[in-house]
Design brief:
heterodimer; A: 802 residues; mainly alpha; Clc chloride channel; three-stranded mixed beta sheet; 19 strands; 55% helix; B: 277 residues; 2 domains; transmembrane (chain A); CIC-7 (chain A); chloride channel activity (chain A); transmembrane helix (chain A); CBS domain (chain A)
Chain lengths: 802, 277
């Protein structure tokens, strides 16, 4: 290929190559991945095999040299990680109930009363979810409080000692080392034991509720690592909160309890066997997520709305009521245990891990004139949130590409911890903002260079757990902070929080966002009253609250649930309206630039996530273009050897197989008869349910639905099942076990139509048939999630092995 | 006005309303008078000792007496017969309830000042630790005065070195004692109880500290800026090294693209490309 030809246009050339590639798969894709393979560290668009409406502008001259060295490679389809990929690692959950004959039999056998017990069991499980989630939240809270208290006391004593004698650099070293070593432990357990416990867990739970099976996400091991990790990272002084991870913890608890067993502990309590299905488990997980939110923020209604907003596809009245029950129980448990712990039992004054304090004094009220101001704050929050997300995006991309080894991740977390301490120390050291100690409720007053009897005001913000700092910013009387302090704090904390999110530690982004917002909101309030020279809008705490809401909304872009959560956390219904306005504005403004943090991370993880709707401009795509074809079908009565071979084939790791009529006459059409799942086939092979064995009158127990449930959710891999040579020639009859009525669409159905069916019913496989009921193709989650509305119209993501 | 009231009483007598007299029983009247005097005395005491704050030391006697007087009014509520019901007639028969308001005010002030903290358990006199503290406080004040007198002629602001040198011992002792008291208080008191010491002690300490570090400028912390800057810039430098080295040395993670199984007709492809390009 001549250079001249290459210089014409990248995208044009790509398209030619793509067509070459598509005609025969054996043709090596010479230039197809050129741009991707050549760039190292540059953000280049991958050359997907079907690029739609997407033109890449790549600096030609730079790439040509590198490209020529790449050309001789025969398998250059390796590209650096980018956001336009779908990982093969993730599979769907089976929300669709397989209505096979076994299922019908079981339903016939169970009488009416038994169904009523099932219903009662559901309630019992929800109560247990609530109680356990509340207790876990208490545990985290108490341990964090004590450990952080211990750490701050040690550092404070040290600083006090060295302030008098000199040698403050030792205090700095002590603080940094303490932080780094605590975070190291927290990061090691996450990086080496359970990487899925990293981060806040909200993206993972969102994906789970969306129907994506994230490996390990609801295991007991994950819960343990998550809880310990959160404690360690908060104690380690990172710019993180412990609220986000509560949602994940609640979900794991829910998934664990509802199954009545733990595969990690290898214990089966033989209870709740009825619920060992993806559908039921999803419902309980959404209850657990709600309980988690409710324990974190003391917001039971917010929790319910959170799981409805993120998860449940159907607005099921009974499910909602049960979720609400779990949330209420959870916040009540937390409340009563914490009040006993704090020594005033029956007071019930701490409903959540974070308590915004009371906002009911008269000066905290707002007037109608302030609403435009609040909306303006929403705009600021949206812009800052977008900036936060954009920075975090680049950082995360870098991390995925270069910092993927666990040891590097641990080192990074330690460095962040040390730098956080250093920044805090330097800020405190440089600050000359002293406030009298008298009459203030500072937990760890640091005097440093202030006069005796005064404390450093910067230290209340940095030398404290983030939750306490937020509450201080909301409620400290006017004049507790000087504007310079707040400005510097906002700036520093913004970058620290942005840098911290995405580290390999378990930690949430809620509290840091609130803290950033509260700091600039308070600054805004102070400057407002300064500008107007009046005392009409005296209290800056109110603006701190609005700033916190705006910042959080700008970063996470949640709407309904976040409004209610904030409202419940403040305990003031009249704030509902301004908070809603602020969050709406922040979301609108932020969405104009980049998407929300959680969605961004889902995308960066290459998760096939289905949004509410198909991309708006996709009506001209039909099922024929969307589907995967050809489909591996099984005949109704199939040879065991064929089944084993199909299942063992690593190149086609399919999970559902259409079952067609086993007609010996090949001329006749083999119509679709049903659908069978890989897991079902594996159970069948394991129990050797072969036609010949039945005919031989071997005494054989009939397979029941229970056998399938017992294997759930970790079906053994096909390699672990031994099938002898003789058995390979046996036949297997699938008609009893397959789902006889799978959902199908004709080839002409448009993408949005297919999408709607798929998303609303929570399907995993959708068979595309022609007008003779012959299987033409199969639509799965990845086929639909590929299409996305990008900056320049409809884009298509490529599949990749990760 | 007095005559008018007398007349009203007369009229009421005539109307035959013996149970509901506006006139108080004599015993009740004396109780009320005692309360009024007591509260006047306490108010005077509080006002006079507002600055510098000596409330708890000076007024605890007044306060105790007033409490007793209020108690004797209120106690009459429980056991006495109808005719001697002073509590009812004094405390609850009108909207204003001035006696209750007054007594509440005094109680609240006392609570806010946290005087109980520096009094003995039975509220008679100051507790030992407070006495000790006030002793030290007076000692340091005398020390300040003593040392200042020498330089009374030229009070240039930088010339307090003498005071700083000579009184350092007393001041440190005082400060330590205060911190000790505070720590004791925080441990002993429950979470609900405020962690404050009583206002006299707090204020005394405050004054001394202000004198010491603001006026005399004695507490000059050694600021070792150079080592702090060195250490912090070293720590801040580490991440840059880390990211650079991982960028240069770490192998970039590559993803392997998978060929999707799609329909292989060029017709549909052309169709799509026409639509979108």
């Amino acid at each position: 290929m001549a250079n001249v030809a290459k210089k014409v246009s990248w995208s044009g050339r790509d398209r030619d190559d793509d067509e070459d590639g598509r005609v025969g798969e054996t043709t090596p894709l010479l230039n197809g991945t050129g741009p991707g393979a050549a760039g190292s560290g540059r953000q280049l668009t991958p050359s997907s095999f079907l690029r739609i409406g997407q033109l890449s502008n790549v600096d030609l001259n730079e790439d040509i040299h590198e490209l020529e060295t790449e050309l001789p490679r025969q398998h250059p389809n390796e590209i650096p990680h980018n956001e336009k990929l779908l990982s093969l690692k993730y599979e769907s959950l089976d929300y669709d109930n397989s209505e096979n004959q076994l299922f019908l039999e079981e339903e016939r056998r169970i009488n009416h009363a038994a169904f009523r017990t099932v219903e009662i069991k559901r309630w019992v499980i929800c109560a247990m979810i609530g109680i356990l989630t509340g207790l876990v939240a208490c545990f985290i809270d108490i341990v964090v409080e004590n450990l952080a208290g211990l750490k701050y006391r040690v550092v404070k004593d040290n600083i006090d000692k060295f302030t008098a004698k000199g040698g403050l650099s030792f205090s700095l070293l002590l603080w940094a080392t303490l932080n780094a070593s605590v975070v190291m432990v927290g990061s090691v357990i996450v990086a080496f034991i359970e990487p899925v416990a990293a981060g806040s867990g909200i993206p993972q739970i969102k994906c789970y509720l969306n129907g994506v099976k994230i490996p390990h996400v609801v295991r007991l091991k994950t819960l343990v690592i998550k809880v310990c990790g959160v404690i360690l990272s908060v104690v380690g002084g990172l710019a993180v909160g412990k609220e986000g991870p509560m949602i994940h913890s609640g979900s794991v608890i829910a998934a664990g309890i509802s199954q009545g067993r733990s595969t990690s502990l290898k214990r089966d309590f033989k209870i709740f066997e009825y619920f060992r299905r993806d559908t039921e488990k999803r419902d309980f997980v959404s209850a657990g997520a709600a309980a988690g939110v409710s324990a974190a923020f003391g917001a039971p209604v917010g929790g319910v709305l959170f799981s409805l907003e993120e998860g449940a596809s159907f607005w099921n009245q009974f499910l909602t009521w049960r979720i609400f029950f779990a949330s209420m129980i959870s916040t009540f448990t937390l409340n009563s245990v914490l009040s006993v712990y704090h020594g005033n039992a029956w007071d019930l004054s701490s409903p959540g891990l974070i308590n915004f304090g009371r906002f009911d004094s008269e000066k905290m009220g707002y007037t109608i004139q302030e609403i435009p101001i609040f909306i303006f704050m929403g705009v600021v929050g949206g812009i800052l949130g977008a900036l936060f997300n954009a920075l975090n995006y680049w950082l995360t991309m870098f991390r995925i590409r270069y910092i993927h080894r666990p040891c590097l991740q641990v080192v990074e977390a330690m460095l962040v911890a040390a730098v956080t301490a250093t920044v805090g120390f330097v800020m405190i050291y440089c600050s000359r903002d002293c406030q009298p100690i008298q009459g203030s409720s500072v937990a760890y007053p640091l005097q440093l260079f202030c006069a005796d009897g005064e404390y450093n005001s910067m230290a209340t913000a940095f030398f404290n757990t983030p939750e306490k700092s937020v509450v201080n910013l909301f409620h400290d009387p006017p004049g507790s902070y000087n504007p310079m302090t707040l400005g510097m704090f906002t700036l520093m904390y913004f970058f620290l929080a942005c840098w911290t999110y995405g580290l390999t530690v378990s930690a949430g982004v809620f509290i840091p966002s609130l803290l950033i917002g509260a700091a600039w909101g308070r600054l805004f309030g102070i400057s407002l009253s300064y500008l107007t020279k009046g005392s009409i809008w005296a209290d800056p705490g109110k603006y701190a609250l609005m700033g916190a809401a705006a910042q959080l909304g700008g970063i996470v872009r949640m709407t309904l649930s976040l409004t209610v959560i904030m409202m419940e956390a403040t305990g003031n219904v009249t704030y509902g309206f301004p908070i809603m306005l602020v969050l709406m504005t922040a979301k609108i403004v932020g969405d104009y630039f980049v998407e929300g943090l959680y969605d961004m991370h889902i995308q960066l993880q290459s998760v096939p996530f289905l949004h509410w709707e198909a991309p708006v401009t996709s009506h001209s795509l039909t099922a024929r273009e969307v589907m995967s074809t050809p489909v591996t079908c099984l005949r109704r009565i199939e040879r065991v050897g064929t089944v084993v071979d199909i299942l063992s084939d690593t190149s086609s790791n399919h999970n559902g197989f259409p079952v067609v009529e086993s007609n010996p006459d090949t001329t006749q059409v083999a119509g679709l008869r049903g659908l069978i799942l890989r897991s079902q086939l594996i159970v069948l092979l394991k129990h050797k349910v072969f036609v010949e064995r039945a005919n031989l009158n071997v005494v054989q127990r009939r397979l029941k639905l229970k056998d399938f449930r017992d294997a759930y959710p970790r079906f053994p891999p096909i390699q672990s099942i031994h099938v002898s040579q003789d058995e390979r020639d046996c036949m297997i009859d699938l008609s009893e076990f397959m789902n006889p009525s799978p959902y199908t669409v004709p080839q002409e159905a448009s993408l949005p139509r297919v999408f709607k069916l798929f998303r609303a019913l929570g399907l995993r496989h959708l068979v595309v048939v022609d007008n003779r009921n012959e299987v033409v193709g199969m639509v799965t989650r990845k086929d639909l999630a590929r299409y996305r509305l990008g900056k320049e119209g409809l884009e298509e993501l490529s599949l990749a092995q990760t | 006005a007095l005559e008018l009231a007398e007349e009203m009483v007369e009229e009421l007598w005539d109307a035959g309303l013996p149970g509901d007299l506006p006139e108080l029983e004599p015993e009740c009247r004396s109780l009320l008078a005692a309360f009024a005097e007591g509260s006047a005395a306490l108010t005077g005491c509080l006002g006079r000792r507002a600055r510098p704050v000596r409330l708890c030391q000076g007024c605890h006697g007044h306060y105790r007496r007033l409490l007793a007087e209020y108690g004797s009014i209120a106690r009459a509520f429980g056991n006495s017969s109808e005719s001697h019901n002073c509590a009812k007639s004094i405390l609850t028969s009108d909207r204003l309830q001035i006696v209750v308001t007054l007594s509440e005010f005094f109680n609240e002030t006392w609570e806010a000042a946290n005087c109980a903290n520096c009094l003995k358990n039975n509220s008679e006199g100051l507790s030992n630790s407070t006495e000790e503290f006030l002793d030290l406080f007076n000692k340091s004040l005398t020390c300040f005065e003593h040392n200042l007198q020498g330089q009374a002629t030229d009070l240039s602001p930088n010339n307090y070195t003498e005071v700083c040198k000579n009184c350092n011992e007393t001041y440190t002792k005082l400060n330590d004692l205060y911190n000790h008291l505070q720590r004791m208080n925080r441990q002993g008191g429950e979470a609900a109880h405020s962690a404050h010491l009583c206002i006299d002690v707090e204020d005394a300490m405050n004054i001394t500290r202000k004198l010491w570090s603001r006026t005399f400028n004695c507490s000059l912390p050694c600021s070792d800026t150079v080592p702090v800057i060195a250490v912090s810039s070293f720590i801040l430098f580490l991440p840059i090294v880390f990211y650079l080295s991982s960028f240069l040395h770490s192998k970039q993670k590559k993803r392997i693209l998978i060929l999707p199984k799609r329909i292989q007709s060029n017709a549909s492809l052309v169709n799509i490309q026409e639509k979108y390009s």
